[in-house]
Structure formats: C-alpha cells, structure tokens
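Hello, quick one for you while I still have it in my head. A protein chain has come my way and I'm curious about its shape. Can you walk me through what the tokens say about the fold? No rush at all, and the record is pasted right below.
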Amino acid sequence: MRHVKHTASLTKLDRAKTKDPCPTDPAKAWRGFKHKDDVAKQLKLLQDGLCAYCQVSLDTELGYHIDHIQPKGPNPKQTFVWHNLVLSCIASGSQGAVSGKLSCGHAKGNQALPKDMDPTHPDCESLFTYTLSGKVEPNPDRPPEQVEDIKKAIELLNLNNKRLVRERAEMLHEGYLCLKDLNGSAVAHFLDLELGKTNGKHRAFITARKLHFQDWPHVEPIDNTLEER
C-alpha cells in the first residue's frame, strides 16, 4: 500500500459536492462528473505514478481508474470527497485483458477496508512486509488484533494474487542478483536508481524495494534460491 497525502481539494470536486452533497444515485452522479481526468492527473502526481494499493506502475497499457476508498454506493456523501479518492491499477475497460483474478479497487468493489487500513492513513505502509517469494504479509511487529485486520485488507484487495506475487518476486530476485555483482560506488548508483524518483515517479513496488535493498549489504536475501531462478 502507498501512503497518499492529499493536497487541498480540487475546486471542481468541491463544486460538485456543493451541488449534490448526498447523491441518491452515486454511480450516476459520478458518471456525470466531467472532470475525472483532472482528478486523475493530480492523484497520479501525489502517488508518484503508482497504484495506491499494490504499488504497480500506473503507466502501463492496462491503465488505471479512480477508486473511492469508502465505496460511494453505501457512502453517497463520499462521492465527491477529495480525500476519499485514489488511483488504482487497471482501467475499468481493461479488466478483461488481465489474466487471473483482479486486485485493488476492482477486487474491493463496494466493500469497506478495515479501519486505518487505507492509503490515506500515515502509517499504512508500515502495516505490511514483503517476502522474497513475492507475498505481502502483515508486519509481525503489529499487535495481534491489528494483524487480523491487515490480513483482511490483503485479502479484500487481493494483494497476493498470482500476477502480483510473481512480479514482486521477479523484481526482488533481479535486484539481489544485481547487488551481489556490485560494490562501492556502483551499489550506491544502483540504489539511487532503484529507490529514487525518475521524472517524479517511483519504480513499482517501491516499499518492497526499500525494505529489501536500502540497508544493503547489511541485509542478505532470506533464502539461497537466487541463482536458480
């Protein structure tokens, strides 16, 4: 998950909210909103070009969509609330092009995430850890009652579907293999490319990259399968 710190609300959203603060048909009201491109453009900047839930790059042929963190169906007052909007991977018209089960906003649908388990929460990124096998797991340092909610969020967003697990695992293994062959200034240059921004955008799965790579060489990969993949 990616922490999204919203800036001041967009005027066009405020106008829509003032005109219709509690739509009787939220889906219809949202379809009629003509400034989604402006909203998406601003969100993409705030999110450093990554999906708010799984952190894949939004610059793929599958595109992205605007997701209501609190679903607008059961929460009509949240339809035009700026802080309730994030960009999620895969455009609504591209769902059929994805092999396997969907994730993130499309998987969540009209279901609500557990309390404090959404991208607007400042602590959201530290709720999760990422294994070398590509899976997302609850941070074991969290209290047991919170761990259960983190598991629910992972399941609801389907963050461990085969596609995402494979992509994370490939990224981590490739990164470790590169680091094993580098030393000195070459390591620093590699980490700068991996963990820094390029044209205002982070690389996919930036939180997993930081967790695994930023303390190199003090942290070693958790298994010995790198050469076999």
